[in-house]
From TrEMBL:
Coiled coil: none annotated. PANTHER family: PYRROLINE-5-CARBOXYLATE REDUCTASE, PYRROLINE-5-CARBOXYLATE REDUCTASE CATALYTIC N-TERMINAL DOMAIN-CONTAINING PROTEIN. This is Pyrroline-5-carboxylate reductase catalytic N-terminal domain-containing protein. One of its GO terms (molecular function) is pyrroline-5-carboxylate reductase activity. Belongs to the pyrroline-5-carboxylate reductase family. GO terms for biological process: L-proline biosynthetic process. InterPro entries: NAD(P)-bd_dom_sf (IPR036291), P5C_Rdtase_cat_N (IPR028939). It comes from the Bacteria. Gene3D superfamilies: NAD(P)-binding Rossmann-like Domain. Residues 2-94 form the Pyrroline-5-carboxylate reductase catalytic N-terminal domain.
Length: 258
């Protein structure tokens, strides 16, 4: 089984690292030559990884081809390539729907969308998948939690939710920066803000049946400091802004469907 990647950037690096460090037999991996530094680093690190001479060589030599190009570059690059009829194409590219991709990779007919998160590198990422292709589920199972869904709208909604990572990190960055402004040393500020972040994640993970509203309620003691911060953020429209941002990403996906 040879898995090819066209677009050797951040997400390809994470997926290739996850696949090459998972238990069991490793797939043979063939990378597009660009980005040259990342491709060379991955090939030097893992015995099962090689760099192809061109994007077309990736398609010709791999059984399955993963597309991880930046959305704004993808169309022009894919239009210059020939996909064989038998190729299974897995696209990681945000905003590209199945129908649009099928036109770009014709005559290949088997197209699956997947959105891995960077945490797949250490086998801890949820990966939305559509349509629910069992080979793609098997590929991502060692990398965390595959989430195969039956409709493209559900897949799109999960992808929109994955656009919140940078905003969530920036929330903890703000807390860390505020601690520093209060003279907490930078390394302690980073460590403490991170520890709060991990504790919250562990709390949510250990109570999978509690809604987020329940978890919020448990954290906001009546008349306490958590309640005050929550109220201030709500009054200032922080959560409405997040909702609006999610709607904006949904609209961007809608525009990229065909
Ligand atoms: N990052 C994430 O967490 C994440 C998660 C899920 C899905 N995605 C999706 O995955 C795609 C890639 O994201 P990314 O963050 O990995 O972006 P990225 O780091 O910018 O990677 C894109 C790669 O494509 C390469 N490239 C440019 N022109 C090329 C060409 N003609 N042929 C082959 N490769 C070429 C770039 O090389 P150069 O560096 O030389 O320009 C770069 O290495 C996007 O569509 C994104 O929506 C990203």
């Amino acid at each position: 089984m040879t898995i090819g990647f066209i677009g050797t950037g951040e997400i390809t690096k994470a997926v290739v690292t996850g696949l090459s460090t998972a238990e069991g037999e490793k797939p043979v991996i063939l990378l597009s030559p660009r980005n040259a530094d990342i491709a060379a680093e991955l090939a030097a690190t893992f015995d099962n990884v090689a760099v192809a001479g061109s994007n077309q060589a990736v398609i010709d030599e791999a059984d399955t081809v993963c597309l991880a190009l930046r959305p704004q570059d993808a169309e022009a690059i894919l239009e210059g390539l020939n996909f064989g009829t038998a190729r299974h194409v897995i696209s990681f590219m945000a905003t590209f729907g199945v129908e649009r991709l099928k036109k770009l990779v014709a005559p290949a007919m088997r197209v699956t969308l997947a959105t891995p998160l960077p945490a797949v590198a250490f086998h801890g990422g949820p990966t939305p998948i559509f349509p629910p292709d069992e080979d793609v589920v098997a590929m991502f199972a060692p990398l965390g939690t595959p989430v195969a869904v039956e409709t493209e709208d559900e897949y799109q909604a999960l992808c929109v939710a994955t656009a919140t990572l940078a905003g969530a990190f920036a929330y903890y960055e703000t807390i860390s920066d505020w601690l520093e402004a209060k003279s907490v040393p930078a390394d302690k500020a980073r460590a403490f803000s991170g520890a709060v972040f991990y504790a919250l994640a562990a709390t949510a993970r250990n109570a999978p049946d509690d809604s987020f509203a329940t978890l919020t309620g448990h954290s906001a003691t009546r008349g306490g400091t958590n309640e005050q911060v929550l109220k201030n953020l709500k009054d200032d429209g922080a959560y409405q802004a997040l909702w609006k941002a999610l709607d904006g990403i949904w609209d961007r996906f809608e525009a990229g469907k065909s």
